[in-house]
């Protein structure tokens, strides 16, 4: 079951969202529950207590903890990249603040039924397929990250370093376990370095170049394997 939370200090908006979700659940066969909160402190306490949510509709402007502040704490402090965020606001100009939080959408109030439908349908399309995720353990908790967000993985002793579009972070484990079920989507270019094939935009006999401009060395022992594998694509 999909677990959704709406966080806004505007009681009228919370009431309107409740009506929109009621309308949506009648029209579409989605299994989900929705909870409503009037402050970021309330939803923050839920996460700190170990509660998990799949999708948040999060306002930005609050009297105390801002939505962007909570979003950064969710990502950086709690290392939560599983919960997806849709920011909602009357103000459009938040692009730079939102970039580091990686929301999946930004909605301008008032939110229409069509807005809600598109967000939920896009979410289900992009995030309901387990094959599109990599799973890992961090601080005794299982997490998942969308496959397309990962540029490459690098083994460093007993740790695996995730190189993503926006950051790098390390977890305990083995690459073979993390990419299990998704091995065909990665290419080993040197000892302990596995590249997401979808991110490769250029390859020579000695290196691959990724979408973000990163160049990675191909070891001599892997050069023919990399060449043959890329020729099949």
UniProtKB/TrEMBL annotation:
One of its GO terms (molecular function) is phosphorelay response regulator activity. It comes from the Bacteria. The modification 4-aspartylphosphate is found at residue 59. Residues 134-232 form the HTH LytTR-type domain. PROSITE patterns: HTH_LYTTR (PS50930), RESPONSE_REGULATORY (PS50110). May play the central regulatory role in sporulation. It may be an element of the effector pathway responsible for the activation of sporulation genes in response to nutritional stress. Spo0A may act in concert with spo0H (a sigma factor) to control the expression of some genes that are critical to the sporulation process. This is Stage 0 sporulation protein A homolog. It comes from Ruminococcus callidus ATCC 27760.
């Amino acid at each position: 079951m999909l677990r959704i939370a709406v966080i806004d200090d505007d009681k009228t908006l919370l009431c309107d969202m409740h009506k929109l979700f009621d309308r949506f659940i009648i029209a579409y066969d989605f299994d989900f529950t929705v909870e409503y909160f009037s402050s970021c402190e309330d939803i923050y306490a839920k996460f700190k207590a170990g509660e998990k949510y799949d999708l948040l509709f999060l306002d930005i402007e609050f009297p105390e903890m801002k939505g962007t502040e909570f979003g950064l704490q969710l990502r950086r402090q709690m290392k939560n990249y599983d919960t997806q965020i849709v920011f909602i606001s009357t103000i459009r100009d938040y692009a730079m603040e939102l970039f580091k939080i990686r929301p999946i959408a930004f909605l301008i109030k008032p939110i229409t039924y069509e807005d809600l439908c598109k967000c939920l349908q896009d979410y289900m399309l992009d995030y309901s397929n387990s094959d599109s995720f990599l799973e890992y353990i961090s601080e005794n908790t299982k997490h998942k990250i969308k496959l397309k967000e990962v540029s490459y993985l690098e083994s460093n002793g007993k740790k695996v370093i995730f190189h993503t579009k926006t950051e790098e972070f390390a977890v305990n484990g083995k690459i073979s376990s993390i990419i299990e079920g998704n091995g065909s989507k990665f290419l080993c270019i040197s000892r302990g370095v596995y590249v997401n094939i979808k991110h490769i935009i250029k390859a020579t006999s000695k290196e691959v170049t990724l979408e973000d401009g990163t160049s990675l060395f191909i070891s001599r022992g892997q050069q023919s394997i990399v060449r043959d594998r890329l020729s099949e694509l």
